[in-house]
Design brief:
The protein is an alpha+beta fold. The chain is about 25% helix and about 35% strand. Strand 9 and strand 10 form a beta hairpin.
Length: about 160
C-alpha cells in the first residue's frame, strides 16, 4: 500500500510538470535581471519600443508561443503558426512608396525567435511601465522591461 501511494504521488508530480509546460516545446525562454543579461549577452546594440497594450493584444492571438524578429528596424511578431500579427508597414525604398502586407513581412523559411507566451507575460507584468523593448544584442535578440530581460532558446523556421 505504501509503495502504491508513492507511485501515485510520483505520477502526480510528473503529470503536473507536463501540464505546466504548455505547447509541444514546453516552456521556452528565461527571465534575467537586466544586470545578469548584460553579463551574459553584452550591451544592447539596438532597441525598439512597443506599447504593452499592443503586445498584450497580439499575445491574446497566440496559443502557447509568440515568435518575433527585429527586421528593417521594425518588430515583426507572429503567432504559434507564423501568422504575422504586427500591422502592415509602409516602407520608402528607392523613392518608391511600398506597402508590405502582413503575409510578406517574413518569408516562409525565415528564422524567428520563439518564446513561451507566459514568459512574455512575466516581462509585461514585471513592472508598471507602459512600454516593452525588443532588443538586439551581439548574439541574441531579447525582450525587456526596465528591470527584467527575456531571452529565447529556439528559433523557428
Amino acid at each position: 500500500m505504501n509503495n502504491l501511494f508513492k507511485l501515485f504521488v510520483l505520477f502526480l508530480l510528473v503529470s503536473a510538470s507536463f501540464v505546466g509546460a504548455k505547447g509541444k516545446y514546453g516552456v521556452i525562454g528565461k527571465v534575467y535581471t537586466a544586470e545578469r543579461a548584460l553579463e551574459l549577452y553584452g550591451p544592447v546594440q539596438k532597441s525598439i519600443e512597443m506599447d504593452k497594450s499592443d503586445l498584450i493584444a497580439m499575445l491574446d492571438q497566440c496559443e502557447n508561443y509568440m515568435m518575433f524578429k527585429i527586421k528593417n528596424n521594425e518588430v515583426v511578431i507572429a503567432d504559434d503558426n507564423r501568422n504575422v500579427l504586427t500591422s502592415n508597414k509602409i516602407y520608402l525604398t528607392s523613392s518608391i512608396l511600398t506597402v508590405v502586407s502582413r503575409n510578406d513581412a517574413i518569408s516562409e523559411n525565415e528564422k524567428l525567435n520563439l518564446v513561451s507566451k507566459n514568459k512574455v507575460m512575466d516581462i509585461i507584468n514585471s513592472e508598471n511601465s507602459d512600454r516593452v523593448k525588443f532588443e538586439i544584442r551581439e548574439t541574441i535578440q531579447t525582450i525587456s522591461s526596465t528591470l527584467m530581460v527575456l531571452d529565447f532558446i529556439l528559433q523557428s523556421r
